[in-house]
Design a protein that fits this description.
Layout: H1 3-32, H2 36-62, H3 73-89, H4 95-123, H5 127-160
Helix pairs in contact: 1-2, 1-3, 1-4, 2-5, 3-4, 4-5
Length: 163
């Protein structure tokens, strides 16, 4: 196995762990959200995240491996930080703004990870992996854009609320 393939499989295991952690966190985020549009966005992304895991399973298979998770400490930290912020602002009109910020940090982490994986798959000339990773990357970018749209309204509402 060459060095790039080894790094690829390690990062694949890391993002596999990240997605599994996110599957547990998204329902909590949806429950905490105040605006229905944000609740719906989190619920919709949960379904997409489950699909991301299925694609990761397929990519492991393309490389003759069984899917495995390598604990993603970055996702764990992002989720922990988000949970702390939810607790700190749960009775606040700024809660949705906090949730969106936490979610966008997660999305940006995932976009970076999937972008690297897709690039490495291209270099290794595994077009099936490239295609699967691109699908997920497109969904992560779309989720981030959706959060941007929700944030515009939510952030204004938080700014206009009195403390």
């Amino acid at each position: 196995m060459n060095q790039l393939q080894e790094v690829f499989l390690e990062e694949l295991a890391d993002i596999y762990s990240a997605e599994k952690q996110l599957i547990k966190a998204l329902p909590k985020m949806a429950k905490a959200a105040q605006e229905q549009e944000l609740k719906d966005a989190f619920s919709e992304h949960l379904g997409e995240t489950e699909n991301h895991l299925e694609r990761l399973d397929q990519i492991f298979e393309l490389f003759g491996r069984t899917a495995r998770a390598k604990k993603c400490k970055a996702m764990e930290a992002l989720i922990d930080e988000g949970e702390d912020n939810i607790s700190d602002h749960e009775d606040s009109s700024g809660l949705d703004a906090v949730l969106i910020c936490a979610a966008q940090k997660v999305e940006h982490y995932e976009i970076a990870a999937y972008g690297c994986l897709r690039t490495w798959a291209k270099i290794m000339e595994n077009e099936q992996a490239v295609s699967l990773l691109q699908q997920t990357l497109d969904e992560e970018e779309a989720a981030d854009e959706k959060l941007n749209g929700i944030a515009e309204r939510s952030n204004r509402m938080a700014a206009e609320a009195t403390a």
